[in-house]
């Protein structure tokens, strides 16, 4: 997201843009992959703590505390330093991560695998029913157009004046679309259960690739009735991203753990050791570059001086990635990690 959120002025390669409405691009995989791996990590860490007898009340308090901190970071850092509570955006990327983590975490603490499967199915069934059956004013039930759909209708009722400044009348991290986004975390939780239950590497690999392929097939069946759409986080999109995440994780697991090439992925580990901090700093860096004029100067005098406009935009984005990598690397070397 550091790469795709900070391009230079001018044209951008299509894979580094979000799909305008229906469909998906490479960029549209990043957010759901993050929520999915949150679920995997939740199972691997929290389940182990529960098994050794850690107090569930303490785990619950920690879950709530972490969710509140992440929500407030997104809520306040997005508009910082010009915070105006009369128009501040309530939803957002970190806010959605916080809400999904909180709800999935609470359910995880007090249910078994069958209950978690039931919640996954139930959340998506509720979302599907609301989006396809509720008689949305002005367009009726089942409309999934940008101009009229149930999710947009709910956002206008409860978030008017507090939505994404680009759209103003609907929010890509809105209320209704959070339901299947929570389901994305549950897909990761269930994958975590598989990884804990089966320890033999090739068995794990078969399960990851097999479940990923099955979810991909299911997603394309569901897309017959409900198209892939990141802005609405449609059920088909949620299932598709879970399938892709499982396949990619399987490939990563094979190369890193089975074949022993993990050292080649160290740059990703370095970024991941302070992932949320790097995301926040990327937004701060973009604001500093814009307001100081340094960004425009670098793009004009360096990027455009050596390549075409579309490649200059990419070069500018890569420069952002490099700067933040150096910061992440310095923190990693000193073992300074932001924890909640």
From TrEMBL:
Membrane-crossing segments per the record: 30-47, 59-81, 93-110, 117-134, 174-195, 207-228, 234-255, 267-290, 310-332
The keyword Transmembrane appears for this protein: yes
Keywords: Membrane, Transmembrane, Transmembrane helix
Recorded superkingdom: Bacteria
The keyword NAD is assigned to this record: no
Protein's recorded name: DUF5009 domain-containing protein
């Amino acid at each position: 997201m550091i790469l795709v959120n900070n391009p230079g002025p001018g044209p951008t390669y299509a894979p580094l843009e979000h799909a305008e409405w229906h469909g998906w691009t490479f960029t549209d995989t990043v957010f759901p992959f993050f929520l999915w791996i949150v679920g995997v990590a939740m199972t691997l860490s929290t389940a182990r703590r529960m098994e050794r007898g850690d107090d569930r009340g303490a785990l619950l308090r920690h879950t709530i505390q972490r969710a509140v901190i992440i929500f407030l970071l997104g809520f306040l850092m997005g508009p910082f330093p010009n915070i105006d509570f009369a128009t501040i955006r309530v939803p957002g990327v970190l806010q959605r991560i916080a809400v999904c983590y909180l709800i999935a975490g609470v359910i995880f603490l007090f249910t078994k695998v069958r209950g978690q499967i039931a919640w996954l199915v139930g959340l998506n069934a509720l979302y599907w029913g609301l989006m396809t059956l509720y008689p949305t004013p002005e367009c009726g039930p089942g409309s999934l157009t940008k101009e009229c759909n149930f999710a947009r209708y709910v956002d206008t009722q409860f978030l008017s004046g507090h939505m994404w400044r680009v759209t103003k009348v609907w929010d890509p991290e809105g209320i209704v679309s959070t339901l299947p986004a929570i389901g994305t975390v549950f897909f990761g939780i269930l994958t975590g259960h598989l990884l804990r239950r089966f320890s033999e590497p090739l068995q794990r690999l078969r399960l990851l690739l097999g479940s990923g392929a099955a979810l991909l097939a299911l997603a394309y069946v569901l897309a017959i009735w409900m198209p892939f759409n990141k802005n609405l986080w449609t059920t088909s999109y949620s299932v598709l991203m879970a399938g892709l995440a499982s396949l990619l994780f399987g490939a990563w697991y094979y190369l890193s753990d089975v074949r022993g090439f993990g050292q080649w992925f160290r740059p990703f580990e370095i970024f991941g050791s302070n992932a949320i901090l790097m995301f926040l700093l990327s937004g701060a860096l973009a604001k500093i570059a814009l307001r100081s004029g340094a960004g425009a100067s670098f793009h004009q005098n360096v990027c455009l001086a050596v390549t075409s406009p579309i490649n200059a935009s990419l070069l500018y984005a890569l420069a952002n990635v490099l700067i933040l990598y150096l910061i992440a690397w310095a923190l990693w070397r000193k073992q300074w990690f932001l924890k909640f």
